[in-house]
């Protein structure tokens, strides 16, 4: 039942938020679409809860990618930090310099994001962590769709736009949010598992792998993406986004 729910509720939530044309609605509605089936499955097992959220993440990404490809101006207004994130990623492609900056800044950013994610997961039985996760996921997918639009090989750009370390991060954070929210989840629902370091360890290993892969592969990956992109029109830098009309 929960698997059918996530397949139905996720597209309904995305298109309803698109119709309402509200950034807040997009974040809240798509999170509810994933959270309700998650609550049903997490009472079966930890793995069932994780798998339903993984399906929700994949489905949400496909929907947002498709809409951003077809309606970039509308989705730019609808997705939080869409332009800022995309500009930073395009500068990375051009220069090889990570958006966060130096090694120390990258490490600080990753630690801060992980701690904030854990804190809000504990306080909200994982709901607010999924709100934050959907926001990060949406602007990542907006960037990937824009990258495909600038590439002579859009399908390859769609595939390569999701960097290996980003994939590892998404999976790790999905797992981490469930693991650390066990105390608050158990207050609300009858879950057949409890918090333990052994449960958190795979997510921490994934976050470490994300950090190391980013440092090792980022220079090579930016060069690969640079070759995929068409030459900018009229000398315009890749990182510069065209001026889009303001929302009414």
Observed structural traits:
disordered C terminus; 0% strand; 248 residues; mainly alpha; single chain; 11 helices
Give the helix/strand layout.
Layout: H1 2-20, H2 23-42, H3 46-70, H4 72-78, H5 82-95, H6 103-124, H7 127-149, H8 154-161, H9 164-180, H10 182-188, H11 197-228
Written account of the structure:
The protein is an all-alpha fold. The protein is built from eleven helices and no strands. The chain has one domain. Helix 2 runs antiparallel to helix 3 (46-70), helix 3 (46-70) crosses helix 9 and helix 5 (82-95) crosses helix 11 (197-228). The relative contact order is 0.13.
Short description:
The chain is an all-alpha fold and 248 residues long. It has helices spanning 2-20, 23-42, 46-70, 72-78, 82-95, 103-124, 127-149, 154-161, 164-180, 182-188, 197-228.
**Helical content band:** over 70%
By DSSP, the count of extended strands is: 0
The dominant shape is: globular
Number of helices: 11
- Count up the domains: 1
Whole-number mean pLDDT: 90
Uncertain segments: 232-236, 240-248
Structural class: mainly alpha
Q: Cα-atom Rg, whole angstroms?
A: 18 Å
Straight-line N-to-C gap: 40 Å
Characterize the biggest β-sheet.
Answer: none
- Beta-strand proportion: under 5%
One letter per element, helices H and strands E, the order comes to HHHHHHHHHHH
């Amino acid at each position: 039942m929960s698997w059918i729910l996530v397949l139905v509720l996720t597209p309904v939530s995305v298109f309803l938020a698109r119709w309402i044309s509200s950034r807040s609605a997009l974040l809240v509605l798509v999170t509810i679409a994933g959270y309700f089936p998650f609550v049903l499955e997490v009472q079966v097992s930890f793995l069932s809860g994780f798998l339903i959220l993984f399906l929700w993440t994949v489905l949400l990404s496909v929907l947002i990618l498709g809409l951003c490809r077809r309606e970039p101006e509308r989705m730019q207004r609808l997705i939080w930090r869409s332009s800022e994130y995309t500009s930073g990623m395009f500068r990375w492609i051009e220069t090889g310099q990570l958006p966060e900056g130096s090694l120390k800044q990258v490490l600080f950013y990753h630690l801060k994001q992980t701690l904030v994610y854990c804190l809000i997961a504990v306080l909200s039985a994982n709901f607010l962590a999924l709100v934050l996760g959907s926001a990060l996921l949406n602007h990542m997918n907006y960037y990937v769709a824009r990258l495909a639009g600038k590439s002579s090989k859009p399908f390859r750009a769609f595939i390569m736009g999701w960097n290996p370390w980003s994939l590892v991060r998404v999976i790790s954070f999905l797992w981490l949010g469930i693991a650390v929210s066990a105390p608050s989840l158990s207050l609300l629902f009858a879950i057949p598992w409890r918090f333990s370091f052994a449960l958190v360890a795979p997510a921490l290993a994934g976050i470490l792998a994300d950090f190391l892969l980013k440092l090792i592969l980022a220079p090579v990956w930016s060069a690969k993406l640079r070759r995929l992109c068409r030459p900018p029109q009229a000398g315009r830098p890749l990182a510069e986004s065209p001026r889009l009309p303001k929302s009414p």
